[in-house]
């Protein structure tokens, strides 16, 4: 209606309240089981960052090498949820894994994969991250 120049003030309806469900929290044993089921280092690191830092798939796909600060043991998430930047702590275990992954895979800019061609902002194909996580979960 607004695009047609019509007022839509009369459409102010009450907001529908939805139930907020708590996320499923895995036990330490379940997390180790999932990580040990991964055969590829890339998948282990991907899941380690998702779970250990609490990142979303989109945030992991947009991680760049310059976002890692091993000296300060932190990870910078650029334009995460709510378009806000934030810093997250990295565990020693995850830092060791990241260094091993970087040495083996030698990523140039983005930590995981290459940006999709023709997409502004270097967006990634979401299937890789989802497939990697789904595969690891099925193996556990």
Automatic annotation (TrEMBL):
Cited Pfam families: Phage_integrase (PF00589)
InterPro entries: DNA_brk_join_enz (IPR011010), Integrase-like_cat_sf (IPR013762), Integrase_catalytic (IPR002104), Tyrosine_recombinase_XerCD (IPR050090)
Molecular functions per Gene Ontology: DNA binding
Annotated keywords: DNA recombination
Keyword Transmembrane helix applies: no
Domain Tyr recombinase: 21-140
UniProt superkingdom: Bacteria
BP GO annotations: DNA integration; DNA recombination
Protein name: Integrase
Organism: Epilithonimonas hispanica
């Amino acid at each position: 209606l607004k695009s047609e120049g019509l007022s839509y003030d009369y459409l102010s309806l009450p907001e529908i309240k939805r139930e907020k469900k708590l996320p499923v929290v895995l036990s330490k044993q379940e997390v180790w089981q999932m990580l040990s089921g991964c055969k590829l280092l890339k998948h282990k690191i991907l899941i380690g960052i998702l779970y250990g830092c609490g990142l979303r798939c989109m945030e992991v796909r947009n991680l760049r090498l310059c976002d890692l600060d091993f000296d300060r043991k932190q990870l910078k998430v650029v334009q995460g949820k709510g378009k806000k930047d934030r810093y997250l702590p990295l565990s020693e275990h995850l830092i060791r894994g990241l260094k091993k992954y970087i040495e083996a895979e030698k990523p140039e800019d983005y930590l995981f994969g290459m940006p999709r061609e023709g997409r502004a902002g270097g967006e990634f194909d979401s299937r890789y991250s989802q497939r990697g996580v789904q595969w690891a979960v099925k193996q556990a």
